[in-house]
Design goal:
It is a single chain. The protein has 186 residues and is mainly alpha-helical. 62% of the residues lie in helices and 0% in strands. It is built from 9 helices and no strands. It starts with 11 loop residues before the first helix and ends in a 9-residue tail after the last helix.
Length: 186
């Protein structure tokens, strides 16, 4: 707990120096402007689902890694090809949930801008990352949900298009918040 009178306070410069500008900005924008902010240094430094900025950036980095693997396997990953991909193989509830979450993006941006509520963007990005990670993890148990499948180029193209759309939205959302999307996690 900070107190100016007791001399126990942390400056914004101290926070930025400790965790970096992207983490600071993201965490500060996860609250309404009239809500108190409890900045938990331990939480924002851990690499887990409990750290929202890590979780969102990890989703973006995971997609970038997937697209690099797909390109190395000879699958088309350019935006023009993915834009024209047949999405009919996307029929599983987890795939459809991710597609629905992506579809919410334009309206959410409109509402957040209209009401001056950037925290809506941060919450949305966390939810989108959660949908992506959930689909990714289901692929461990259900091989038909894996994003890349050698014997199913049409399904792979559809899933690549879905993940690329997720990356576009995550990148745009982080850009709105002034946070750099991660291409790799180290």
């Amino acid at each position: 707990k900070m107190s100016k009178r007791a001399g126990t306070f942390v400056t914004l410069r101290d926070v930025v120096d400790e965790v970096g500008p992207d983490v600071t900005r993201f965490v500060m924008l996860t609250r309404k402007n009239d809500a108190p902010l409890d900045f938990d240094f331990d939480r924002v430094l851990e690499q887990s689902k409990d750290n929202p900025v890590f979780y969102v950036q990890y989703a973006h980095a995971r997609i970038c890694s997937l697209l690099r693997k797909a390109a190395a396997a000879g699958l088309p990953t350019d935006d023009a090809t993915l834009r024209d991909a047949d999405l009919s193989p996307l029929a599983h509830e987890a795939e459809l949930a991710l597609a629905k979450k992506i579809a919410e993006w334009p309206r959410l941006v409109e509402i957040a801008a209209k009401n001056c509520e950037p925290h809506r963007v941060a919450f949305y990005l966390y939810e989108l990352a959660s949908e992506l990670h959930a689909l990714w993890n289901r692929g461990h148990d259900e091989p038909a949900l894996r994003f890349l499948q050698e014997d199913d180029p049409q399904g792979s193209a559809a899933r690549l298009a879905l993940t690329r759309a997720s990356a576009v939205v995550i990148s745009a959302g982080l850009g709105i918040l002034g946070v750099t999307p991660a291409e790799e996690m180290r």
